[in-house]
Design a protein that fits this description.
The protein has 2 domains: 80 residues, no CATH class; 84 residues, no CATH class. The chain is 0% helix and 39% strand. Strands 7, 8, 9, 10, 11, 12, 13 and 14 form an 8-stranded mixed sheet that branches. The two termini are 16 Å apart.
């Protein structure tokens, strides 16, 4: 495996809030069409580009330092604006890289095929009921199923590789 995601949730007892972090591999991309590793790159691979002067193409414009997703041919820059917040349980394709505050019930993310490289940080805001997130491959699983987010657990981050939504850890 070339890269892996790591993340954790840490409760700040003094401030009474939680911080969620995810870390992606850091690399210097010279261009949005370069293949910097000597291995076959997986479609949906996300990296943080450290090279501010990255060159782009018409099909793959560059945005300097930041997150890039490999789509099988080149690197797509992730927009750098702040993540949108939402409390809607029904989203269409196109809204990705968002923080979702949802209460009990169910949520089904948009099509993984139409959301390659996108992620959601999902928080269960209900005091006592479970939130079900459908069509997600959970830790240790090989097929999509229902991810249950307990109120005390608080949240989960999911990521689309273009085929499936995966829970990140």
């Amino acid at each position: 495996m070339v890269c892996s995601f790591t993340g954790f949730a840490q409760t700040n007892q003094d401030a009474g809030n939680e911080t969620f972090l995810v870390s992606v591999p850091k690399i210097s991309l010279s261009s949005t069409t370069s293949r910097p590793l000597s291995v076959k790159l997986a479609k949906g691979l996300v990296v943080y580009n450290l090279y501010a002067k990255i060159s782009g193409s018409r099909q793959y414009p560059a945005q300097g330092e930041g997150l890039y997703t490999f789509d099988g041919q080149g690197w797509m820059a992730t927009p750098t604006e702040a993540l949108p917040f939402s409390n809607k349980k029904e989203l269409g394709p196109g809204l990705g890289n968002a923080v979702l505050f949802l209460d009990a019930g169910t949520f089904t993310p948009p099509s993984a095929e139409e959301s390659i490289g996108q992620f959601f940080l999902i928080r269960n805001t209900h005091a006592s009921s479970t939130l079900e997130v459908h069509q997600v491959v959970d830790f240790g699983k090989t097929e999509s199923g229902v991810l249950k987010i307990l109120p005390k657990e608080g949240g989960a981050m999911i990521y689309s590789d273009g085929k499936h939504w995966f829970r990140l850890h």
